[in-house]
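Researcher: For the record, we're logging two predictions in this thread. I'll number them. Prediction 1 follows.
Model: Prediction 1, sequence and structure:
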Amino acid sequence: MDETAETGEIRGTAQGTAPVPLSVLDLVTVGAGRTATDALRTSVQIARLAESRGFHRYWVAEHHSMPGVASSSPAVILAHLAAHTDRVRLGSGGVMLPNHAPLVIAEQFGTLEAMAPGRVDLGLGRAPGTDGATAAALRRTERLNEGADDFPEQLAELTRFLDDDFPDGHPYARIHAVPGPVQSTSPGGVQSPHRPPIWLLGSSGFSARLAGVLGLPFAFAHHFSAQNTVPALDLYRESFRPSAVLDAPYALIGVSALATDDEREARRQVLAAALNMVRLRTGRPGLVPTPEEAEAYEFSPMEREFIDSWNANVIHGTADEVRTGLDDLQKRTGADELMITGNAHGGDVRLRSYELIADAYGLQKAEGAGA
């Protein structure tokens, strides 16, 4: 693969007054009284807004058996978004590698690359993206730790499928991921110079170290593991070895942030999202509740403690307050890119949040673009 092309696909350029490139992480959340169709329609609207306002990339995350999160099939959603956008990078944040055969992922993302040449990212995680029972149903095995332990080997296999370079004598040497490089070696074949760059995702040190050793870009889940952010990024940078992909570390962090037109509304919205997390963490997953339901809910002392801890890491308020919070976080972590996830009950609130953040940083609307 062309080293310069891939490096250019990874590194973004800060727009407006933003300190680093800004991107979007979409969980395709479904609120009470709304449908998955509504949520996916909102995703298209946000992706189009992200493209028109200069956000660098738009990722969706794999989750399962969660009524309030309609992103169980990232590749399907990304294909849908590819049909409605032209420039913004699209990717997975991430696909949970132990849940899938590497060949299947290579085929899916080779297909996406053919649909949206030069703008597809493949972010990989080693967690199940769900609970143990659901993971067993996905993987057809009860040996769940095996998948995580085998992650480096699975990653190596997936990379070879993407590059079509298994050595002679390997059991998979005559197996090819299509669409993929093998098409360029067939009579009359012409193949795209691009293939989706691999990112490693993590919420602890394992993937940080592995990404560093392999010279890959790294994405850290600050939005649900804030206490580990700085140690993981330090470990990534300390472990980094230059590669054909990157000559220096490149790390983005996922950030939970919600901007509204007034501070009180922001507090109402994040309370509802936090109640959804309380229910998820206590084995009662459901649709994202309305702010009215959250305000009427009687939190136990333990639940209130969780809410306060959770919302302490959600940057929320007016656009200026969110901008200040994002700037401070970037300075504290040294992140090369901020990937913003805005969780709220209503799609209109999420859409407005990204619009306000774009305005706060002076991100110019692309000429002729529409959200």
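Researcher: Logged. Prediction 2.
Model: Prediction 2, sequence and structure:
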Amino acid sequence: MTHDDLVIAAIVPCHNEAPAIHKVVTDLKAAVPGIHVYVYDNNSTDGTDEVARRAGAEVRYEHTKGKGNVIRRAFGDIDADVYLMIDGDDTYDTAAAPEMIRTLLEGPYDHVLGVRQDDPNATAYRPGHEAGNRMFNRVVGKLFGTPVSDMLSGYRVMSRRFVKSFPALSREFETETELTVHVMNLRVPHTEVPVGFKDRAEGTESKLNTYSDGFKILSLIAHLIRFERPVLFHGIMGAIFAIVAIVLAVPLFIEFGRTGLVPRFPTAFLAASLMVIAFLTWILGFILEGVTRLRRETSRLNYLTYSAPGTATRRLPVDHPEQQPAPQQQHGDAGTR
């Protein structure tokens, strides 16, 4: 199979991007001939859908507000060999798309991240965004063991097997974080490509709120630690309970050693209870680690049902009907005589 035979789909989430979407669609079609551009209108009120349709995109709708909801819908609806995700605000350099697709196929990789290279003369970063992005990159890289340069980038190229194994649980701008952590958890082949990043088109405004969306991303990271690193999360929680229990118990042990009495029985009961809670929390962490491992194995097996990027064959489960031998035709006596 040649690269020209592959179905390449661009997913463009949009909310009130009428001034920019025509250029995004036409630039994508010029950069990647034959690409299928799907513009997902997310409750726009400025005619984004009509502008995108006139530019040659296939317009679809997701009425539940939030970028994560759009990605969840698009990943479920669209069947392609290669998926390109890009924002509809014309801040990303569409000319980088062919290089990102080529990198994915030649690797082969399952995920190529477009790392934003900001233009200092026309910066697209709002105050606090760049610092927050760097902080999130360091935190997630340390916690999940894989370095990442721009985890909040909305410009990515992904394989079919990556997309179809991605659960897409987030609702809003946390979806980029969820995609990045999915790369790390499944340990799929992944690389980064620098891409241009410029200011938004005139007449459009960012939907990202520095503080509220930053808090949502931070909250998602905390939830991901809880669900994806249960031993770490419950180990820390258990350690907090244990430290408080020890702090409460030490004076009681000292007093008991001196007098042979326990003068503050309620404190002793509280310290003992907290230590029991600490041990139960640690045990819970180990139990959930087994559940997490089973869930990852299931995701991995689903990932392996699809072939590598650039190949024509889709791997099928062993019990798939297409792999069952065809029943032999039974001939009656009348047909053999």
